[in-house]
Amino acid sequence: MITIQGFAKLCGCNTQTLRYYDRIGLLVPAKVDQWTGYRYYEEEQAMQFVKIKNLQQADFSIEEIRPLLKDDEAGLAEAFDRKIREKEQELEKIRNIRRSYLEETMMVEKMLKAMTGYVRGRLDNPVLWKEFGLDREGSTEVTARATELLADWLTACRNENEEISVSADGQQIDGMENIIDQLMNGSLDEAENFRLSRKSDEIEKDIPADAKTVFVREGWDHIHEWIDGIPDLGNGKEKYFLFRVRPDSPVSDHGFPTLVLAVMAARFNAMDGGMACKILLSDDGQNHFELRER
């Protein structure tokens, strides 16, 4: 037998490694002195150490190594072959990611540039800003929030593997590349009705039945008359802004939903929990507003 210090020198490791292997039951000493606690190893156990070390270097986990210590050389060779095939598959996956990375980066950059440019153009309506009592030139934060909202939305679509679509005057355009082409060539510039959505999930455009009304204003002319009365929205709940307005109200403008969400995000921290805006025409010639939460 050989002491733990001698065995460590024989194996080219330190005693801490051997104590760790002992603790997890991977390489247990042949004998432990009951009085001193000294560990002793058989020289033949060095072969087991060599197995363990090489399997670890080949990226086998401890749980993978345990059963392999009982295998003969043929079994170990087969295990190494399996690990090689596994690593080759991982490498191929990395190669594919490397090939697609630049293309995807350029596509997303173009998409963000095209969409934010379009949205900013739509928001460049002084009448809409006056609805909130805002100065367009002095409201940099609101514009930044509008861009942030769009970027977050596009990122969520991409992370959830959802393909976005645009509806412009009844024409539906699917896919990021197609939308970019339409935006870049100016085909959507004159669209009266422009709607950006997730192709596979339209339910978020509707207000859930279990959302509770927390704020109401009726019969108003301009939003700035009541916007300061909105409670703090940074509570982590989903927010739904429901407008029923006269046909001649600026709120019916197709750029309004993006602007209202940006204003609510900038002034009331409403991005916490998520939010949506829905606009309908009223049937009584009055303007109505409801804030609902869930």
Overview of this structure, please?
A hairpin with a 2-residue loop joins β4 and β5 (171-174). It is built from nine helices and ten strands. α5 runs parallel beside α8. The strands form three sheets. A four-stranded mixed beta sheet has the order 7-10-8-9, with helices on one face. Mean pLDDT is 82; it is low at 199-205. The N and C termini lie far apart (71 Å). It has helices at 4-11, 15-23, 45-57, 62-68, 73-123, 126-131, 140-159, 176-184, 256-268, and strands spanning 2-3, 31-32, 39-41, 164-168, 171-174, 194-198, 212-218, 239-245, 275-281, 288-293. The protein has 294 residues and is of the alpha+beta class. It is elongated and about 100 Å long. 46% of the residues lie in helices and 16% in strands.
Q: Calculate the mean pLDDT score and round it.
A: 82
> What structural category characterises the helix and strand content?
alpha+beta
| Overall morphology | elongated
Order of helices and strands: EHHEEHHHHHEEHEEEHEE
Q: Return Rg in Å.
A: 32 Å
Going across the major beta sheet, what is the strand order? 7-10-8-9
Distance between the termini: 71 Å
Per DSSP E runs of 2 or more residues, the count of β-strands stands at 10
Helix content: 40-55%
Ranges where pLDDT stays below 50 over 5 or more residues in a row are 199-205
Strand content: 15-25%
Sheet having the most strands: 4 strands, mixed
Count of DSSP-assigned helices: 9
